[in-house]
Specification:
Chain lengths: 181, 321
């Protein structure tokens, strides 16, 4: 431990060490800035240089929370399950209590948002499989799982209309299974 | 010494760095505790994403080991490394282990993480590069018990990277918002408060329908974020913009369900506390600890005192006295 601290201190106090650290700092800052740029030729060119470094360090930057525009649609992922005996069930991702449980369940909402996004179609089949696997009835898996995107867009502020509106359901995916246990 | 050299290499007390390490250890522990109940559902082959996404050069423990045991192992690694960061035992190794665990989890299923998680991961890397265990740590205790309450001066370049990262978060989030139109229309915050799956509690329509309130919240957010990006570098303005940042993130925390985003942002402000102010704060804590009813806390506070002759832990004979 002490040796490692001495090594770092020696590096930080020697001209060669400082030059090395300065080089690493400059490259790190450049990589962070390039990763933050909006889609552009400059970003594409820069990312070719810094991408391997970002991949190794994990320093990718994406601070677009609620940006460029926040989404206006309230979303809900709904799975409708059909069993071999004709019975049905409905599943929604878990929603925790608003005090403590929400710190665990917000990740389900994040996942569901990605499942419903048109840019992540590859998540639909694994999502349906997960719901089927985790919801057997009488020891048998469902024969069909349908994933629906439920949504409504709240009217703009100032119009005096309530935020809650009727749901619109859009079928995203249908998975059929043998119904075995 | 050039301004560049002064900024990155002129030694400063590690007091702020030590507190930042402890605070982030606590945040990581809470983060891991919140994630643990769903870890196998999110990261295992029987979960919502059975296979690791195509990774290229994006390495991670769960890209190499896909079993349930590996998922549990990475979670245990995160718990242990966060606990070791708090107490400062084998601090460098603990910080590297925390970073490896965070990078492994966030890459195994990137669809369940947000910006706050990414910032936590990035700060873990910078903590691993900094002399985080130099003060207020078991490492220090084992090496130099008498100097436990001392704060050696070290080159702050890794700490500066943390500060720049935090500043960049605000700068680029404002830039991203400038590319949309709802923020400049002054309604973005109220529009988000009307998205019911995003909020912690349903917000009454009377509040979200007010255009005046919408304007105040939206423009206020932009002003605070831009101020944090720029004026946090000015020592005179810093307390004010940090107070505004805490108010902003307090509001976000109370209204939106965004996990650890606000917690991580507020925790990162510790990096901007001037070292002399932090030493003063720690001195006051030490004074209180000296008056503690608990012998162990008292002994820690007295470490390094000329009057203190009691080693810690005290031999049984002395404890009996």
């Amino acid at each position: 431990m002490g040796d490692r601290i001495q090594l770092q201190r020696r590096l930080e106090t020697s001209p060669t060490g400082r030059a090395l650290i300065t080089g690493a700092i400059v490259f790190t800052l450049a990589a962070m800035v390039v990763s933050n740029l909006p889609p552009s030729e400059l970003r594409r060119t820069g990312m070719r240089v810094v991408e391997p470094y970002l991949d190794v360090t994990g320093l990718h930057q994406n601070w677009n929370l609620f940006a460029p525009d926040p989404r206006r649609a309230t979303l809900q992922l709904e799975a409708r399950l059909l069993y071999v005996d004709g019975s049905t069930a409905v599943w929604h991702p878990p929603v925790g209590d608003p005090f403590i449980g929400v710190y665990a369940s917000f990740r389900w909402r994040k996942w569901a948002g990605n499942v419903m996004s048109s840019s992540n179609r590859g998540l639909l089949a694994p999502a349906a499989d997960f719901v089927a696997r985790t919801h057997p009835r009488d020891g048998r898996l469902p024969v069909q799982v349908q994933l629906f995107k439920r949504s409504y867009v709240a009217p703009m502020p100032g119009l005096g209309r309530p935020a809650v509106q009727p749901w619109n359901d859009t079928l995203l995916y249908t998975a059929r299974y043998g119904g075995s246990s | 010494m050039s301004r560049w050299e002064r900024f990155w290499f002129s030694p400063v007390s590690v007091s702020t760095l030590a507190v930042l390490r402890i605070v982030f250890g606590v945040v990581m522990l809470a983060w891991a505790a919140a994630l643990a109940p769903n870890a196998l559902r999110f990261f295992s082959s029987s979960g919502v994403l059975p296979h690791h996404p195509a990774s290229g050069t994006r390495w991670g423990l769960l890209a190499w080991f896909g079993s349930d045991t590996a998922v549990v192992g990475v979670m245990v690694l995160l718990f242990v490394s966060a606990a070791l960061l708090i107490v400062g035992y084998r601090t460098r190794i603990a910080a590297v282990a925390a970073w490896v665990a965070l990078i492994s989890l966030t890459r195994r299923d990137p669809f369940v993480f947000n910006s706050g998680d990414a910032l936590l991961r990035n700060i873990a890397l910078f903590l691993a590069l900094a002399p985080s265990g130099e003060a207020l740590s078991l490492d220090r205790w084992r090496r130099d018990r008498a100097g436990f309450w001392g704060f050696p001066a070290r080159a702050p370049w890794a700490m500066r990277l943390i500060q720049i990262q935090v500043s960049m978060v605000y700068l680029f989030t404002v830039w991203a918002k400038a590319r949309g139109d709802r923020w400049f229309a002054g309604t973005a915050v109220s529009e988000s408060l009307r998205v019911h799956d995003l909020v912690r509690f349903p917000i009454p329509d009377a509040l979200t329908n007010s255009v005046l309130l919408a304007n105040l919240l939206t423009y206020g957010t932009l002003v605070v974020e831009l101020s944090l990006a720029i004026f946090i570098w000015n020592r005179r303005w810093r307390p004010w913009v940090i107070a505004a940042g805490i108010a902003l993130h307090g509001f976000i925390e109370l209204t939106f369900a965004l996990g650890f985003f606000s917690t991580v942002m507020i925790a990162s402000y510790v990096a901007f506390v001037p070292e002399d102010a932090m030493e003063g704060f720690l001195g006051r804590i030490r004074t209180r600890m000296r008056r503690s009813r608990f012998a162990t806390i008292k002994r820690i506070a007295e470490a390094g005192d000329a009057s203190s002759t009691i080693p810690w832990p005290a031999p049984a004979a002395q404890r009996a006295v």
